[in-house]
Amino acid sequence: MSDTRTCSRPIQSCFQCRKRKIKCNRTYPCAPCLLRGEGDVCREVDRSLANSSKTTVETLDDVVHRVSLLEKTVKELSSRLPNHADTVGPKDYTASDRQHATTKLTSTNSKDNNKFLSTIRSSYGTASVDEDVAMMLEDFAMGHRVNRSRATQDLECEPVSPFLYPTPASQDGAFGHLGHSLLSFPHPSSPLDAMSPVFGLAEGHPLSLLIDPTVNITAKLVSLLPSESRCRLLVQFYFERLEWYSKVLHAPTFQAEAEHLMCQIAMATPSASNPDPVPSALAHISLSFLSVYFMVLCLSLHLIEPGLCRQLNINFTEATELGTKMYSAAQATFYAGNFFANHSLEALQSFILMGVYRQNVDEADSHWALLGSAIKIAQNLGISRLGSESENRKYTGLWKSLVKRETGRRVWWSLIFDDWSHAAAHNGAYSVHPSQNHTALPANINDTDLVEGQPLREMPETQYTEMTLSRTRYRFVDLYRQIVDNMQSPSSSGYGFILEMDVKLRKMQEEVPLYFQDGSSGEALSKEQLLATAKGVKGLELTLSLIMGETRQLRLHRPFLFRGYKDKRFVKSRDQCISSARAILGYLKSNDEHCAILLKWWMVLFYGFAASVVLFIDLCHQKVDDAPDLEHRRAELREALDLFKTAEHISTVSRNAIVLLEGLMSTLRH
C-alpha cells in the first residue's frame, strides 16, 4: 500500500495496531503485525474513515439501513394506493375514496397472501399491512435490530447485505450453504471491523476490561481443543450414544460445520504439511458454532464409557476433568461472542447442551435462571412462530432453509420442555404461554432424510424415527403443564380434574408402544415384546418414554397420596402413586445395561428419586405387625438405593439422592 502512495498526507498507523492501541512503525506490513503473524491483514487506515465520527454501526444501521427500508416501505405502500390517488389533493380525498383504497388494499392483501405469510410477526393475529408498517417504523426508532433486518427480507425477499451483517457463511464461499444466523459472532462494531478478520475482543466488549485487547481470543479458545483425532472420536461417540437425549442438532449439518472448523484450524496451525500457516483463517471461525462444538465434546467426556476411555488412552478421572474444561471453554466462547447481543440458533443449541451438563453437576438453578433469556432470544429470532411445513407459508432470511426451520422447531420445543416440566419446582411459573406458541412439533424424520432442497419426507406417527422420543415427551409435557396450571389456579377444578387427566395420560401411555414399532414388520408388538427386543438407543428411548408416562401419573396423583390413607375417596390416587413408583423402578431394573446408561442423566435420576420417596411414604404408613409386607417394602427401597449407586461416580445429583435416601431409611430403623 505504501509503495504507490500519491498523496502528501502523513502515513497512518495500520488498522490492527490502531485497534489494539499500540505503537505502529507505519510500514505495511508493520513490525507488530509481523510479530503477531498477521502480516497478511495489515493495512493502513484511510484518513477519512479514521477521522470521521460516523465509523460505527450507527452510520450503517441508523442511516443507510433506515433510509433503505423506509424507501422500500413507501414504495410498497404506494403500489397499494388507488390508481387515481396521486392526482387527488387532500381535500378531494373523500370517504368514498378512502373506502375504495381500503377495498383495494384488502383485495391486494388477499392476492399477496402467500407473501405476507412469510413475515414472522404477521403470521398470527392481525394480518394488517398498516399495522406491520407502523411496527416496522417503531423497530427502527427503538433499536430492534433483528426485527428490522427481518423486515428488509420480508419486503424484498432478499438476504440482509453481508456488509451490514457479515457471517462466516457469507465470507467463506463454499460453506455458504450452511447458513449461519443473521447476526454473526462477534458482531462488527464498525464498517472496518465488518470487512476485516476479528482476532481480539471488539472495542466496548465487557471482557475487554479484563483481557488485553492484543490477545487473539479465537486462537486462545481453539488451543483448548483436544487433538483432531480425539475430537473426531468424541463427536462420533456423541452422535452414536448421546444425541438421542436432547436431539437439538442436525447431524449432517453439524458434521459438515465441524469439518469446516477443522480445516480452518489446520490452515492456521504450522505443521510439516503446512509450513506457511495463515493465522487469519481463525478470524472467520463462528464463535457460536465453536461453543456448540465445545459442548458436544464436554458431554461426550462427562458421560464417557470405558470403551471410549481406552480409545482415547485416558482414565475416567482425566475424562471428567477434561469435560469440565470443555464446559468452561464453551462458556468462555459464549460470553466472548456476547450471546446476549448477538442472537443465533447455534447459541441456543449450545445453551440447551449446557443445561444438560449443568443439571448433572447440581447446577439446575443456574440453568433455570438463564432459561428465560434463551426463550426470549428464541422468540426474537422468530422460532416461536415457525408454524408447520404443511402450512402454505413462505420464509425469508435464516428460515429459508428447511434444515434450519426443523432444527429451530427442535430447539424451541426443547426450551418449552425445560420450561414446563420444571415449573412446579419454581412456584408453578413458566415463560412460554401456550397461546404464544405457534410452532409445530418437530417432524417425525431421521436426520439423514432431512436434506436441504428436498421436500420434507415425514414418517407416519407409528413409524419409529430418531425424533420419536422427543415428540413423545413433548406430548407428555403439554399435559403436565395443564396439571401445573390447575394446581396454581385459585379455583381448582377439584378431584374431577385429576380423574379427567388420568384418562388422558392413560391413553397416551397406551399409545407409547405404537410409536416404537418397526415399520418393516407386519404386526404390532406389545410393550413387553418391544422391551425385550429393542436394542441400543431405541431400547433406551422406549424405556425412558415408559418411565416418563408413569412419572406424569405419579405427579398427577401425589397431592392426594396422604389423603388416600385416611379417606376412601382418594384410594385410587394412593394406589396409582404406588403402582407408578414401582413401575418406574421396575423399568430401570429390567435391563442392567440400559439402567447404567439412563441413570447418568439428571432427569432419569429425578424420576427414580420421586418414585423412591413415594415408596418410603407408603412404608411409613404400613402396620408394624405386618412384618413380611414391611420387609418387602424395605427391600424395594434398598434396590432403589443400589440403582442410584451405579451412577454416583458421574452424577452429583445421584450422590445427593443416595445421602437423602439413606437418611430416610435410617430413621425407620430407629
From TrEMBL:
Write down the PROSITE patterns for this protein, in alphabetical order.
Answer: ZN2_CY6_FUNGAL_1, ZN2_CY6_FUNGAL_2
Q: What is this protein called?
A: Zn(2)-C6 fungal-type domain-containing protein
- Which coarse location class applies to the principal site listed for this UniProt protein? nucleus
Which part of the chain is the Zn(2)-C6 fungal-type domain?
13-44
Q: Which organism is it from?
A: Dendrothele bispora (strain CBS 962.96)
UniProt key word Metal-binding? yes
The record's subcellular location field reads: Nucleus
Q: What domain of life?
A: Eukaryota
Q: Which PANTHER family match?
A: UNCHARACTERIZED TRANSCRIPTIONAL REGULATORY PROTEIN, ZN(2)-C6 FUNGAL-TYPE DOMAIN-CONTAINING PROTEIN
Q: Which InterPro entries match?
A: Sec_Metabolite_Reg (IPR050613), XnlR_reg_dom (IPR007219), Zn2-C6_fun-type_DNA-bd_sf (IPR036864), Zn2Cys6_DnaBD (IPR001138)
